[in-house]
Amino acid sequence: MDVFPSDGPISPTVAELIRSGVRAVLDAPQEWIDALDAAVTSGAGMEGIVDDEGLLDVALRISAGNLAHWAAANMTDPGARVPVAITDEARAYIRDLARRGLDSRSLDSFRTAQNVAWRQWMEICFGLTDDPMTLRELLEVTSTSIANFIDDTVRALAELIDVARAELGADTHAQRRAAVALVLEGAPIATARAETQLRYRLDGPHTAMVLIGDPGTRPEELEAACEAIMDASGATRRLVVVSGASELWVWLPRNEVCTDAVAAYPGVRVATGSAGSGREGFRTSHFQALTAARLLRRSRSPRRVARYEQVRLVALLGEDQAAAAEFVASTLGELKDADEQILECVRTWFAAGCRVSETAAVLYTHRNTVLRRLARADTLLPIPVRENAVHVAVALELLDWAA
User: Fold this and answer.
1) Please, what sign has the CA dihedral across residues 143, 144, 145, 148?
2) Helices (H), 127-218
């Protein structure tokens, strides 16, 4: 039995079946999309990526974009070799992989995603025709098309990684990141050597920050926001490490930093640690900033800044998220799902020392409005707020920072 040629013309019947299959791909159920995403994250070399929310989001978007590109090409020219499409986002992603010291092994996720996509495609194909010869041609043509597209894409991206790694070979950024990793791990790197590689003194005060860019935020905006905070804080030097596609780790040699300047950059959020001193302060402040950043990412509020001092209690009590959620639900009762104005009023009342007049001033409203909202909150709580004030205050704080 002859094998159908992979690069020759295909029958009109199979061409139309490919178009029908592509329509099914574009209308795939959510569980298929979830399976593809899971395949991407399980690929070898993805360990350093799945822990970085921003970088992982980019990887998943690139994977989805590749699928859409292949589908669109096969709607136009079924079975033909699909040209590689390297987007600007993909190029930035590759450069970031190189900065993190990752190599072409991190592209294995394309192979694992290909395997899942092929199983899903076969399921579609078996539902399109019962004719053995037609099905055989359909599977042969599309198998070759998918394999060629993935091979070509991985090859092109691997070449980009090699170029980026070569460009970074003489870049002090790679050395800086390596030195930071050693200090953060508590490795016995000599202080003088670390400071030379970091170009930053480890003695004296440090306040660490994590700057997070919203999806679509350009690296230049993160850099500009960092500069603005530095200037507002009166700092003359800083240490910056690119830690992800849209994230910077920053240290300023200051006991206090002014984050108000970030308001001029609506696509940037900032989390800060407490001030520390020396190498241990450098480490501790950074890990505190990472904790605040994690809570800032999952918070449902529109806040753009989180200080560790603000979230210390939430970080401690919210470590067990299931237990925290149960505490919030049992403590707040119906107040948990109340109008945001009521929740904000009760939170502000606690922050104002339970003083109605100060609460009204902060909220720019009449004290009678505050009283009405507090009374409404009482009717929604299982136990009146004045009889359970500490628990209610903590539960509201946990709710505000919840995912």
Assistant:
1) positive
2) 132-168, 172-185, 191-198
